[in-house]
Amino acid sequence: MEQGKFPRHYLEAWGIAKSFKGTRVMSDMNFRVERGELVSLLGPSGCGKSTLLRIIAGLLEADEGAVVLGGREITRFPAHKRNVSVVFQNYALFPHLTVAENVAFGLRARGMAKSATGAPVSEALSLVRMTEFADRPISALSGGQQQRVAVARALVVGPDLLLLDEPFSALDRKLRETMQVELKSLLLDRGITAVFVTHDQEEAMGVSDRIAVMNAGRIEQFADPSTLYARPASPFVMDFVGLSTRISGRVVSSDAGTIAVDTAYGRLSARSDVTVGKDVLLGVRPELIAVEAGENTIGVPLTDVMVLGSKTVLHGTARGGDRILCELPGIRGGLKRGDAVTLGWAVDDTLAYEVAP
């Protein structure tokens, strides 16, 4: 590695490229994480997030590029020399070993005497609140308990980096949310740098300091959850991180950073520098829309009214690839399918993306 080649980031995957059977799935990938950060790789199946994770872990060799961790290049290090722990989707626990023996496995693999593993194993089990299960077989544990054991086994070796590949996907929703809170708190308390792989945007938003949204082997946007949601960099990010109203149109005028767009629902405005004559996609988050006139106003019949307890979601009649959504707080009675409603929102809340011809 050339002196000064890499910036001073705790983890950096730089210029990563990977092909499978002659098909390039990742090119010139650059991914950086600071010490103590909790970062998620978020995207649909096949976007390259697990491939990148496995390259960082040393379980897969990149065709090009380098991996740097804590100031040292580990690109050619085998997985067991990287001091990186991985929690897999299926936990990869050994069914013939007890809970304590599973947690001790990594220590024994590093040459620690069996008699010396008791204290670190006890500490790790205490962290995940599994002390009383130390002597139980893995088969006697629930899914959530197995997940805790997998985390304890990953942490007991004192890793420089923790990687988690869809660690909550096998759990039911309520348990998944509980484990997300517990794991985030544990990692933050111990200052552990971690990278999560997930396709669940709510999970990524809940556990992450920053999120890298991936699509087709590249990162479309890498930002904190609030920025991703409020100012998505592309239509893909807007759709993958939350829901939105989407309206297609064409720019008919531009004045001082504000464009006017003709749509199937009338003329709408947005803050943008897209030039006149270009096709655009307008977006707005559904909770920013009200059932009343606004700076931007459309009238639509309702195709559905969904009462979801803490909110009511209105689906408006849309044309082509458009989508009309309005989210209102609480239970809103009096609205039903077929009603014609007026929806309004602020110009500043309107996202605009140029659409390639």
| Rg measurement, Å | 24 Å
Oligomer: single chain
Query: How many helical stretches?
Result: 8
The CATH first-level class of the largest domain comes to Alpha Beta
Explain the layout of strands and helices.
Elements: E1 11-20, E2 23-33, E3 38-42, H1 49-57, E4 64-69, E5 72-73, E6 84-87, H2 99-109, H3 118-127, H4 143-155, E7 161-165, H5 173-190, E8 194-198, H6 201-207, E9 210-215, E10 218-223, H7 225-230, H8 235-240, E11 245-255, E12 258-263, E13 266-271, E14 279-284, E15 296-307, E16 311-316, E17 324-329, E18 340-345, E19 351-354
Parallel strand pairs: 3-8, 3-9, 6-7, 7-8
Antiparallel strand pairs: 1-2, 1-4, 4-5, 9-10, 11-12, 11-14, 12-13, 14-19, 15-16, 15-18, 16-17
Walkthrough of the structure:
- The protein is α+β, with helices and mostly antiparallel strands.
- The chain has two domains: 11-237, Rossmann fold; 243-354, no CATH class.
- The protein is 22% helix and 34% strand.
- The chain is built from eight helices and 19 strands.
- The protein has helices spanning 49-57, 99-109, 118-127, 143-155, 173-190, 201-207, 225-230, 235-240; strands at 11-20, 23-33, 38-42, 64-69, 72-73, 84-87, 161-165, 194-198, 210-215, 218-223, 245-255, 258-263, 266-271, 279-284, 296-307, 311-316, 324-329, 340-345, 351-354.
- The strands form four sheets. It has a six-stranded mixed beta sheet with strand order 6-7-8-3-9-10, sandwiched between helices.
- Helix 5 links the parallel strand 7 and strand 8 (194-198).
- The protein starts with 10 loop residues before the first strand and ends with a strand.
- The mean pLDDT is 93.
